[in-house]
Amino acid sequence: MERLFELARRIEQVFADAGLEYRVVGGLASYLYVEAADPEAGRLTRDIDILVPRRDLPTIAEAASRCGFEYRPAAGVDMLVQVDNPSGRRAVHLVLFPELRNRLDEVRAHE
Questions:
Q1: Burial (CB count <10 Å: 0-12, 13-18, 19+), residue 40
Q2: pTM, whole model, 2 decimals?
Q3: Rg of the chain over all Cα atoms, to the nearest angstrom
Q4: Is 53 helix (H, G, I), strand (E, B) or coil?
Q5: Nearest-angstrom CA–CA distance, 75 and 70
Q6: Helix, strand, or coil here: 80?
Q7: pLDDT tens sequence across 34-84
Q8: Is 3.30.540.10 the CATH number for 2-110?
């Protein structure tokens, strides 16, 4: 679990340093939600899925490369793998969305 949260911390730093917006989705997001409600019920996966705007992909790849990650599109999945541990199972999977900012504004309006 510590490795996954360290990976999440590093990715957060990549996006913060580059001024990029993203949202955690998938298994980690579910875990954090469930963990808050019932700490005994949460289960983790080994990867992280994040929702990012497609237009930011070149900037994401560049920013990630400066922090020990490599952008790899493989089998229809865009991902950031750790250069020192290039495993797709322990990668950050990028869920590309064409108009993330507009959708995030819509979500915020309903919160």
A1: exposed
A2: 0.75
A3: 14
A4: strand
A5: 16
A6: strand
A7: 777 887 776 767 788 999 998 999 999 999 999 999 999 887 889 999 898
A8: no
